[in-house]
Every structure is written in structure tokens, then in C-alpha cells.
User: What shape does this take?
Amino acid sequence: MLREISLTSVPVNSQLEKHRLKVIIAVFAMANHNFVTGAVLLADDDSNDIFFLRRAFEKAGVSSAIMDVPDGEKAIEYLGGANCYSDRTRYPLPSLLLLDLKMPKVNGFEVLEWIRTQRELHDLKVVVLSSSGLPADMQKARALGAHDYRVKPSDLDDMVNMIKEVAGRWLS
Assistant: This one.
């Protein structure tokens, strides 16, 4: 499957041809729903949710390194490059964090508060992915800097569609 086309490998005679080629490549990528993106960090204490999220990313055609951590404390360590996460080759800084709220040790709200204090994470996109649909949780997450809030779908097909939407909005 075609992953990337370099414009320097295709002979073009004008700026117009180069622009047309870029448009064709973009349309091809969108038609195939194949997003080539940076790393994604899943912070969730439920191993079943992690399994189904990984499966949904695969079925959605999102080509990203998918990393996961089991709680908010590990999410902070990962994002801060602390302890075993200091090797950014093995543990790349993510472009997107999917963050559960109800986790042991440090909850998702506390992770959001910590992220706000980290200048180097200013560009990190955070999508809260929680089983809670409470308006108070949604408002608090957004007030703490979450870019989006999604209630976890219970069906794999719905989860695949959600991942396509999230990737299309926050990873492209």
C-alpha cells in the first residue's frame, strides 16, 4: 500500500502542476481513509478498552504508533519523559492523547491540570474518552484544556467511526 509520495520524485514543470499533484495525493489519502500520523498515547486502566481501541485504530486505517499506559501517574511519567519513558525513540512524544477520566492513582482531570503547566506539551491534542456522559465532567474537562470529549462507544463499529472522526480532526 502506498504510504507516502515525495513531490521531489515526480517531475513537475510548474507550480500549478505541483499544486495539482498535492491535491491528487490529498484526495487519494482521504478516499482511502489512511491517516499517517504521529504517535498516539492511550491512558486507560481498562485493558479491554485498550484492546478495542487498538483494534479500532487498525480497522480505521490510522497508521500511528499506539502507546498505552494504565493510569494517570504513568501518563504523566510518559508525557514528561520520566523514569523508563526517557527514551523518546522507544516512547515518542505523542501528537494525540486519548485520556480516560476514572483511573487509579492520578485521575484524568489531574492529568489535564498537569498538562496545562507543561509548556512543551502546548501542541498536544487531548481527547477525553470516558464512560461518563455527565455534563459536569464534560465542562470540567474542557475547562482544563481537553480539545474534545467523547463517551466510549460500546460497539466496535461505533468505536472505529469515532476513531476516524478523532483522527481526521486532531491528527491531520
